[in-house]
């Protein structure tokens, strides 16, 4: 099946972001994509100073438009992420819609991005956001998909659990920056893919040098052998790739790590 990653240029005008995103979703569908994914914070600038201003409830304006375009195009739509308000708390949330427009999953970013690299970048999502408390998966006729958002990708246990639960594709909307992007963006994706013998797709906003937080870009798809099979540059674009589950099965047969794990010695489990 064909996967499309929409590396969107995100502006400060929410209505423009929504209109542009939906237009690119339609374009991707017309080119045969069955799963289409948007980037982290696709409807608002990324930054703790913006989350409250742009936050919505789910359902709300942005998710209603995503639901409508998923149904119109009869696709599975991974809605990147939006700032979500619920019960007086803010979350960084990825909604997923099916071909009938129904909400299939809602992943709230589990690991909040609180880092300090002296002289390069300091950022603290927990100043405004609350963490999600569940792992999120959804089924399609093609395969089972596991969800994470950006910083979630650094936590190998989460990806391992998704693999144990039968996921063959992991999708991470993310916005690595100009420090962490060149260092770890591709490395982490290849690690998660080869460790668990599955496909990993990451979707970044396009790079905007004028933004307060500059995203690395380079939306990427990695196959279960750890090879980069599709990759964007820094500009707004749509990345297409065909996900070959037969290849995944062949790799798992050739190097059967899943059946050769020493579960008598170690294990990773989901607690909720």
Automatic annotation (TrEMBL):
<dbReference type="GO" id="GO:0005739">
    <property type="term" value="C:mitochondrion"/>
</dbReference>
<comment type="similarity">
    <text>Belongs to the carbon-nitrogen hydrolase superfamily. NIT1/NIT2 family.</text>
</comment>
<protein>
    <recommendedName>
        <fullName>omega-amidase</fullName>
        <ecNumber>3.5.1.3</ecNumber>
    </recommendedName>
</protein>
<dbReference type="InterPro" id="IPR036526">
    <property type="entry name" value="C-N_Hydrolase_sf"/>
</dbReference>
<feature type="domain" description="CN hydrolase">
    <location>
        <begin position="1"/>
        <end position="245"/>
    </location>
</feature>
<dbReference type="GO" id="GO:0006107">
    <property type="term" value="P:oxaloacetate metabolic process"/>
</dbReference>
<dbReference type="Pfam" id="PF00795">
    <property type="entry name" value="CN_hydrolase"/>
</dbReference>
<keyword id="KW-0378">Hydrolase</keyword>
<dbReference type="InterPro" id="IPR045254">
    <property type="entry name" value="Nit1/2_C-N_Hydrolase"/>
</dbReference>
<dbReference type="InterPro" id="IPR003010">
    <property type="entry name" value="C-N_Hydrolase"/>
</dbReference>
<dbReference type="GO" id="GO:0006528">
    <property type="term" value="P:asparagine metabolic process"/>
</dbReference>
<dbReference type="GO" id="GO:0050152">
    <property type="term" value="F:omega-amidase activity"/>
</dbReference>
<dbReference type="GO" id="GO:0006541">
    <property type="term" value="P:glutamine metabolic process"/>
</dbReference>
């Amino acid at each position: 099946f064909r996967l499309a990653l929409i590396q969107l240029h995100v502006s400060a005008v929410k209505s423009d972001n929504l209109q542009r995103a939906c237009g690119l979703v339609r374009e991707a569908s017309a080119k045969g994509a069955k799963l289409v994914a948007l980037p982290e914070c696709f409807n608002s600038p990324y930054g703790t100073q913006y989350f409250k201003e742009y936050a919505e409830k789910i359902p709300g304006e942005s998710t209603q438009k995503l639901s409508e375009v998923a149904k119109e195009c009869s696709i599975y739509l991974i809605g990147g992420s939006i700032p979500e308000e619920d019960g007086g708390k803010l979350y960084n949330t990825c909604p997923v819609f099916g071909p009938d427009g129904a909400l299939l999953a809602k992943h709230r970013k589990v690991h909040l991005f609180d880092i300090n690299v002296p002289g390069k970048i300091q950022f603290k999502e927990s100043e405004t956001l609350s963490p999600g408390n569940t792992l999120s998966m959804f089924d399609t006729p093609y395969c089972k998909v596991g969800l994470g958002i950006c910083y979630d990708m650094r936590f190998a246990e989460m990806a391992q659990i998704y693999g144990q639960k039968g996921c063959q594709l992991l999708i991470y909307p993310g916005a690595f920056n100009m420090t962490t992007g060149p260092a770890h963006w591709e490395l982490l994706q290849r690690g998660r893919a080869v460790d668990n013998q599955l496909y990993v797709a990451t979707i970044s906003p396009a790079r905007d040098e004028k933004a307060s937080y500059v995203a690395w870009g380079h939306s990427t798809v990695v196959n279960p052998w750890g090879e980069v099979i599709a990759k964007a540059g820094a500009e707004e674009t749509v990345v297409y790739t065909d996900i070959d589950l037969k290849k995944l099965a062949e790799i798992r047969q050739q190097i059967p790590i899943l059946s050769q794990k020493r579960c008598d010695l170690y294990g990773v489990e989901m607690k909720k």
